Amino acid sequence: MVGTSSTSSCKPTHACDACRRRKSKGNGPESVDSVCTLCRNSRQACTYFYPAHRRWAPVAYVHNLEDRIEAAERVLQQRFPGVDFTSELGPVIPKDSWMRSKATPDTSRRNLTPPKHPFIPYGPRQPHLISEEYDEMSDDPEDLAAFTSLANQNGASSSLRKAPTTYAESSNASLLRLLRSKNTPLELPGFARHEFWNIPIFESIHPAQRPMCYFELPPPDLLANLIDIFFTTIAIYGPFLHRGLLEQQLADGLHYEDCRYTALLLLICANAARHSNDTRVLMSQDQRHSAGWHYYAQVEGLVTRTEPVLPDVLDLQIIMLAASYLTSTVTSSPLSRLLISHGLRLCQLVGAHRKCAYSATPNLMDELWKRVFWSLVAFDRFGSALTGQRCSILDEDSDVDFPMIVDDDCWDLADVENKYPQSHLQRVEQQRDMVFFVAYLKLTQITAYILRSLYSLSTFKFVKGVSSVAEIDSALNQWYEELTEHLHWDPHTDDIKRIAHSGLIHCLFYQAQMLLHRPFMFQSKLGLPSLTICTNAAQSHSRMLEVQARHSERLWLQVQIPVILQSGIVLMIDLWHKMRASNRPSDHPQFVEHWHNIAACINALTVLEKSWPRAGKFADVLRDLSNSDILQGDSSDASAPASTSSQKASLDQGTMVYGFDTLNLPIFSHLSSGP
């Protein structure tokens, strides 16, 4: 007999559970026995277990409306002092009277004092819809939160344990598991430094709890300095912004008219703040990792909002800058991947991924569209390689050409819609920024193909992958042979831009090589020298890091941080493999070069941790792995030399090679004399 399972004696006022699942109105409340027609016909119980929820307006949205009304009232009082608008606007409504009996009003957002500097207000901040947990299903339970589990073992912040992250096979976490599985599970007591593993206070405040922000640009001198740092340090790797056009718009006062342009300036300042030594970019003097957060927090609501409006190139540039900054944070790094995916979907919405959407006549605006689209694609591919997640867009999903190899100074800003003057053309070899960018994009294409061939979830991926290794190796070698002289690595050059371009392009080239051969490092029966290839790539990368360190810290970007970690782990795996094969201890002279290269990786991360907390995390991981029993095992080889008193003295003094910060690693004591 069909009936209701509701235990309440009251007549229901909403649709039954089955109708609500089908999103149907239902007629249960109108029937005598409260059984709807759907349940009666299907002869199932018509239940009302789930109560109806009244949909109140989000509290943050209501607070923002109240703040805007207060701001409007202040403007009216300033413009028309002493004038009463009660007849036009109605009587004053007491604040929080709409829910006074149900909630305590939040007074932390009231009585906001306008900033001292000129400000540009913007619309209400949208509610933060991103879940605090970021989790991805995995077919291998051992891949679960390799780095997070290390933090949990060592007393790191419990708040990080609430959001475990799953890393797939191409991630560094999976590579780290190779070392963990070679011996007993690592017990790393207290290695995690809390400043790098805990959530900073300024990041722990939920966006809905922050006061309504005004767009407050830095002082003019600091703004000019940060813009210069951005275009000389960051934009040379991804030229999706045109410096001349941006400075012209700034001089014309566009930041007073368009809040999006002001947001763009603030995000430029946020990214450049990581490379600035000016203390004004910090929220407080003792929080070095807060550099730029004040600028990003002002525009966060604008970045994450969704509106049914077709985007333009400015919107996509904002997304790209926001994602780049979020990658350097502790809590919001996963959000950067979501922003990039959102940006790519917006590109598809307006047709930026199709060749037919662009004019046949080259012009600057079309090129900016191409540059920002391909920047999003490259960011997405590199992020997929690090996390093992699927790329948001594949090669077959777009047919747009690469950007033209024409640097910014060759474009005529008098009319950005017209063709650039032929008289300003230079040889392709002289267009160094765009030559690098196009070569970088071609390398990401190969990286994306490696991910699809070797790291997909298909059951035939291994068979397909083995047959593809030689093909991909050939493609990598051909790509390398086509590099211009400017992009070839020269450790003796003093050209800073050449060191920057060639350093990053080789870093990503070594990363692609290791990514290609990692699945076959211990598959000797296949006849692939994969472990040797991975080790050679890691060694070349570590030697390159030493050269970069002698020039400037600004030559390193956060995109290189996970590759440095990957190189360090590969070197440790090869060291462990050779130790087991030769039955010799880790301090044998045969392994001096290995420790030298591992030290270079840790030193680089130690320098980078001053600006990026993720580098500090990875440095902690490499340090502790270096001191673990896996690489410090005893050996019965009597020829192995014992530690000398001079070595221990250098350890006690905290001496470190290359002039970097002290690492306090016993295994580096034999390197104290330097190279």
**Radius of gyration from the alpha-carbon trace, in angstroms:** 29 Å
**Chain-averaged pLDDT:** 73
Identify the overall geometry: globular
Major sheet description: 2 strands, antiparallel
Helical stretch count?
Answer: 23
Q: List SSEs in N-to-C order.
A: HHHHEHHHHEHHHHHHHHHHHHHHH
Secondary structure tally: strands: 2
What is the total number of structural domains? 5
Read across the widest sheet, the strand sequence of neighbours is 1-2
User: What structural category arises from helix and sheet content?
Assistant: mainly alpha
Which range best describes the helical content: under 10%, 10-25%, 25-40%, 40-55%, 55-70% or over 70%? 40-55%
The low-pLDDT segments are: 1-8, 96-167, 182-189, 206-213, 634-675
Task: Please tag this protein with its features.
two-stranded antiparallel ribbon, 675 residues, mainly alpha, CD2-Gal4, disordered C terminus, 2 strands, disordered N terminus, single chain
Describe this structure in words.
This protein is mainly alpha-helical and 675 residues long. It folds into five domains: 1-55, Irregular (CD2-Gal4), CATH 4.10.240; 67-94, no CATH class; 151-204, no CATH class; 210-431, no CATH class; 441-671. 47% of the residues lie in helices and 1% in strands. The chain is built from 23 helices and two strands. It has helices at 17-21, 37-42, 59-79, 86-89, 146-153, 172-180, 194-197, 201-204, 220-234, 243-251, 259-273, 293-303, 313-326, 333-350, 364-387, 432-454, 461-481, 496-517, 530-549, 561-582, 592-608, 613-626, 645-652; strands at residues 120-121, 214-215. It has a two-stranded antiparallel ribbon. Helix 11 (259-273) packs parallel to helix 13 (313-326), helix 13 packs parallel to helix 15 (364-387) and helix 18 runs antiparallel to helix 19. The longest helix has 24 residues, at 364-387. The chain is globular. It starts with 16 loop residues before the first helix and ends in a 23-residue tail after the last helix. Residues 1-8, 96-167, 182-189, 206-213 and 634-675 have low confidence and may be disordered.
